[in-house]
Amino acid sequence: MNKLWNLEHFSAEALHRTVVRDGLRIRIHPQVHPFLRREVHTFVRWLRANYPFPIRVNVYIPNTKKIRANDGDLCYGRCFVPDDPDDSITIDVAGGYDYDGDFRALQNYTWGTIFMLAHELGHYYQYLNRVSLTPRGIEWQATYYAHRVQEAYYDAEWDEMDEWAEECADES
């Protein structure tokens, strides 16, 4: 059970939200590798089917190896909650990969990008649930639940592949 992502303590009024825009929106830079693009879109479709997004969150994946955080440091992902409660929450995750022909390295990078997206969405759910922890605790919790979400996604994808394989075997 993913306790952070289940919105036990969510209240739009407590977050002073008046405009009701919901959903998970994603935009991926056109130069991002097609494999990475496809896998991230598949993950986002799975997220939409399995988790609520009561406040709009916009995800952008630029074609850069790292992005600049609000404090000026370079990082792989960031979650920005604006001061105006009626603005959308924004998540940026680095998606720049120089493909050199090593497909396994591309798969590993893609899995890391999916993990980073899940981690940043953990911060989104921390905001929705009004979680109050130390800075280290906030990062730890987001990482912990990112692993849980990624495992659930992996299990769901493999279950779907197993069902497809059984259907193909029955047809032959």
Description:
With 172 residues, this protein is an alpha/beta fold. Helices cover 47% and strands 13% of the residues. The protein has 3 helices and 6 strands; from the N terminus they run βαβββββαα. The strands form 2 sheets. Strands 1-2-6-5 form a 4-stranded mixed beta sheet, covered by helices on one side. The protein is globular, with a radius of gyration of 17 Å.
Concise structural overview:
By secondary structure, the chain is an alpha/beta fold. It contains three helices and six strands, in the order E-H-E-E-E-E-E-H-H. The longest helix has 37 residues, at 135-171.
Q: Give the distance, in angstroms, between the N- and C-terminal Cα atoms.
A: 38 Å
Quantity of strands, as a count: 6
Helix content: 40-55%
Order of helices and strands: EHEEEEEHH
Beta-strand content bin? 5-15%
SS content category: alpha/beta
Topology record:
Elements: E1 24-28, H1 34-50, E2 57-61, E3 67-68, E4 74-75, E5 77-80, E6 89-93, H2 103-128, H3 135-171
Parallel strand pairs: 1-2, 2-6
Antiparallel strand pairs: 3-4, 5-6
Name a few traits of the molecule.
13% strand; two-stranded antiparallel sheet; 47% helix; 3 helices; 172 residues; alpha/beta
